[in-house]
Amino acid sequence: MPSKLVDPATLPTMTFDWGVIKPLVAADNTENAEVSMMHVILLPGKGHERHNHPESDEILYILAGEGDQMVDDKDPIPVRPGHTVFIPKGAFHSTLNTGYEPMVILAIYAPAGAEAVLKTLPDYQEIPPGEAPALARG
Fold first, then answer.
1. End-to-end CA distance of the chain
2. Distance of CA 90 to CAs 24, 31, 55, 58, 123, Å?
3. Does the bond joining 111 to the residue before it have cis omega, within 30 degrees of 0?
4. Is 70 exposed, middle or buried, given 0-12, 13-18 or 19+ CB atoms closer than 10 A?
5. Which residue in 7, 86, 122, 128 has the most C-beta neighbors within 10 A?
6. How many angstroms separate the CA atoms of 69 and 61, rounded?
7. Degrees to nearest 5, angle at CA 96 with 10 and 74
């Protein structure tokens, strides 16, 4: 069974108006990956708009910062480091950084592939491997 050591410096960074994503394990960079894992940073006061992943479950693990997490169109709940959020296939959800510092999240998609839609978002830009993204665009 092949394995892969991921060095984030060798991967591009996805940038958006709300923050950045480093696709650590993704369908387009890991052969035969059954799951994908993204390192996500949401800027203060920013977040992901309401959306869903019809074909993938999603797990969010909060590493740093604090925010509000909405799942399945229910009232948002506060999340902080150490919290884990399970989002079933097709459930609408959103995440908002409510703190003053970046909110850092590991996002896992099962099966892999849901991350591909990120490249179709209107504010998507890609920073080449080895280059640091700006904290804010403008």
1. 45
2. 23, 25, 7, 10, 23
3. yes
4. buried
5. 86
6. 11
7. 125
The single-letter DSSP state of residue 121 is S
Of 93, 118, 99, 100, which Cα lies nearest the Cα of 39?
A: 118
Beta-carbon contacts of residue 50 (< 8 Å; ≥ 6 apart): 70, 73, 92, 93, 94
Beta bridge partners of 61: 84, 106
Specify the 3-state DSSP secondary structure of 40: strand
DSSP structural state of residue 31: T
Closest of 23, 44, 13 to residue 115, by C-alpha: 23
Would you state the structure tokens that stand for residue 100, as one six-digit string?
Answer: 């003053």
**78-97 per-position pLDDT tens digit:** 999 999 999 999 999 999 99
- pTM of the shown model: 0.91
How many other C-beta atoms lie within 10 A of the C-beta of residue 52?
18
Residue 1 pLDDT level (bands cut at 50, 70, 90): very low
* CA distances, 69 to each of 60, 74, 123 (Å): 10, 9, 22
